[in-house]
Amino acid sequence: MDPVIAISGLSKTYEDGYEALKSVDLTIGKGEIFALLGPNGAGKTTLISILCGLVKPTGGSATVGGYDIVHDYRKTRSMIGLVPQELTTDQFETVFATTSFSRGLFGRPAKPDYIDQVLTDLSLIDRRDNKIMTLSGGMKRRVMIAKALAHEPTVLFLDEPSAGVDVELRKGMWDVVRRLRDSGVTIILTTHYIEEAEEMADRIGVISKGELMLAEEKHALMAKLGRKTLTIQLQEPLEALPDQLGKDGLELAEDGTALVYEYDTRSERTGIGALIADLNRADIRVKDLDTKQSSLEEIFVRLVREGQ
């Protein structure tokens, strides 16, 4: 299946010499939720802005639905819905009017039933006739999403969509995004909420200093780069780690009641067998064992550090 978005060697250098993007290659398929993670200034917003036609690339190329983003700008832009980070909308318009107006900007005929359904999905229907200025920050964020969906795009960019949205409404928003994905809409999400990417994304990309470090299926990424932590609860607390255990890479918990051992799940030998044998030789009695897989946040932090 042809990708909905195909990016090849895309780069952006500003007049002051700052390289915001460095030869990015990426493809995204139809009906995929792709989460792009990276620290502030990593290039996430620049990449989205280029694909949406708001910023001109310095080099490389990109297509949306097979159309070039530069030469076929009108065609590609009509296929895209964008939810920017900034809350920019007419404060004196009603929720319904501003959403309908966004649809009209793309030359789409009036479709009030569709607009009402979008507002219902985003828990805004009871605010349909309220002016934007009367809404909370979280509601205004949802209005921005409604505006982006007004012209029925096939690709939706969400640039930090959950900023300022409380936990309950954020989960409701995730449900809306999943339904859009199930209907065939391709969704590209940037977020600083790691749990949002872990909960929603099919694939995850990590960008740092303008370079796309990787783009992997979520579960494959966690299996490939994830580490496990073995916590060994002790029957008797230790005041210090015995010298003969220092080579095992163990750490003693602050209260002395547990030993912590981190190991790579990809290694043929995890070292756990040798560790248990060393504990027996040191006459350290074990009460319980517990393992924990690294979270996506821990993997992300490690990747960014390695890229510095």
Automatic annotation (TrEMBL):
GO terms for molecular function: ATP binding; ATP hydrolysis activity. Residues 5-234 form the ABC transporter domain. Transmembrane segments: none annotated. Keywords: ATP-binding, Nucleotide-binding, Transport. Pfam families: ABC_tran. Belongs to the ABC transporter superfamily. This is ABC transporter ATP-binding protein. It comes from Pararhizobium mangrovi.
